Amino acid sequence: MASEQSSLKLKINGPTQLSIEDGAGRRFGIHPLWLRERCQDAQSMDLLTGQRLQDPSDFDLDLRFSALSEPGPGQLHVRFSDGHEADFAAGDILAEAAIPAGEHDAPPCQLWTGTLTDLPRAEWRPNPTDADMTVWLERFLRYGFIIFSGVPPVNHEVLKVALAFGFTRETNFGTIFDVRSMPNATDLAYTPVKLDAHTDNPYRSPVPGVQLLHCLANETTGGLSTLVDGYAVGEALRERDPEAFHVLSTTPVRFRYRDRVTELTASAPPIELDVSGRIKTIHFSPRLDFVPLLPPEELTAYYRARRVFDHLLRTSEFEIRFLLNSGDLVMFDNCRLLHGRTGFDPQEGLRHLQGCYIDIDGPRSRWRVLRRNHAATSGSAS
Ligand code: OGA
Ligand code: ZN
């Protein structure tokens, strides 16, 4: 931030026009109302919570800058046409202005394919330092997953890892669930059959953001874990088969889970886009999806599109495989990645994973707080 501060430029063009330019020459025109609702003085916001005291809908829609000055390098003093005066650090305005619409400040996703060989791995430490957490979070947020080794293979240890990153999301399966082959299974995950690439629990609204799977025992030769970057496959589909992409991003599919005491359903397009057209969430589970009865030609188009997408998800072009051994734990973004496993023979021995969910907000928040603390201790104004 310190270097950004010195290379950024405030451009005051006459008394009423303000723009700010970063070190790379990107220029952001600043709207008076946009800046007015970011005033940080005691009259505008509660200094303890940082929350706004005035309803910004009440500001004058024709608000103007009446006077702009730069009392010192990187400082801005503003008088607004409603008489309010405020000071800003140019670095703060730039940091805020540079966040693209619909995005949040977190490490950018790095899309990956089946050629990813240097998997984001780390050795778990029960009392991680800030530096450990920062490295782990950067990897997780960039790649959408991280594989830990050295997580003691004991009951409920998965919760310790979960709580280092966020807060658990309890479901009808409990706070944690056991993934092992068992008689009278209520979910195919609790049998030895292979599981094709899927996102977990698309029948919930909202879906669980992050899944953790901790291997307590694996005495079988099968049961390899599979992961696919759904954003990468989605982007490949957008490019290679725009029609299929359009169908999958606009057809709401109903997902359903039922057992004796639970009945959950939710509808979502398999490739859910945000308002800017970027892929936001993949909802995909070929064992649980039920497309509504659409006109025949729409259904034909949907079934074709689903096949193309599913076949891409299964190819080695996009899929990675690895074995979880006792003490390994994989944590992945359930909105971005699809996961699965190869089948296994329970006669060979026990395969037992313990899992839980957290929301994605947790890791993002932890990463931002660590960044903030790091900036404070290294003396930057951010
Ligand atoms: C699950 C699941 C994968 C595995 O429990 O949701 O997909 O490796 N399990 O058993
Ligand atoms: Zn699953």
Question: What's the SSE blueprint?
Answer:
Layout: H1 2-7, E1 9-12, E2 18-21, E3 27-29, H2 32-36, E4 65-69, E5 75-80, E6 85-89, H3 90-97, E7 121-123, H4 130-143, E8 145-149, H5 157-165, E9 177-179, E10 195-198, E11 210-218, E12 225-229, H6 230-240, H7 242-250, E13 253-258, E14 263-268, E15 271-273, E16 279-282, E17 289-290, H8 296-314, E18 319-322, E19 329-333, E20 337-341, E21 351-358, H9 361-377
Parallel strand pairs: 7-8
Antiparallel strand pairs: 1-2, 2-3, 4-5, 5-6, 8-19, 9-21, 10-20, 11-19, 11-21, 12-18, 12-20, 13-14, 13-17, 15-16
Helix pairs in contact: 4-9, 6-7, 6-8, 7-8
This protein binds N-oxalylglycine (OGA) and zinc ion.
Largest β sheet strand count, sense and barrel closure: 6 strands, mixed
Compressed to H and E, one letter per element, the order equals HEEEHEEEHEHEHEEEEHHEEEEEHEEEEH
CATH topology of the largest domain: Double-stranded beta-helix
State the CATH superfamily name of the largest domain. Answer: Clavaminate synthase-like
Gross geometry:
globular
Low-confidence stretches: 1-5
- Report the C-alpha radius of gyration, rounded: 25 Å
The top level CATH class name of the largest domain: Alpha Beta
Number of domains: 2
Give the overall pLDDT as a whole number. 93
Strands of the widest sheet, in order across it, are 7-8-19-11-21-9
- Ends apart, CA distance between termini: 6 Å
Describe the protein.
There is one protein chain. Helix content is 26%, strand content 26%. A hairpin with a 5-residue loop joins strand 1 (9-12) and strand 2. With 382 residues, the protein is of the alpha+beta class. The strands form 6 sheets. Strands 7-8-19-11-21-9 form a 6-stranded mixed beta sheet. Strands 10-20-12-18 form a 4-stranded antiparallel beta sheet. The protein has 2 domains: 2-99, NE0471 N-terminal domain-like (2-Layer Sandwich), CATH 3.30.2020.30; 121-366, Clavaminate synthase-like (Double-stranded beta-helix). It is built from 9 helices and 21 strands. It has helices at 2-7, 32-36, 90-97, 130-143, 157-165, 230-240, 242-250, 296-314, 361-377, and strands at residues 9-12, 18-21, 27-29, 65-69, 75-80, 85-89, 121-123, 145-149, 177-179, 195-198, 210-218, 225-229, 253-258, 263-268, 271-273, 279-282, 289-290, 319-322, 329-333, 337-341, 351-358. Helix 6 crosses helix 7 and helix 6 (230-240) crosses helix 8. Mean pLDDT is 93; it is low at 1-5. Residues 179, 189, 195, 200, 225, 339, 341, 353, 355 line the site of N-oxalylglycine.
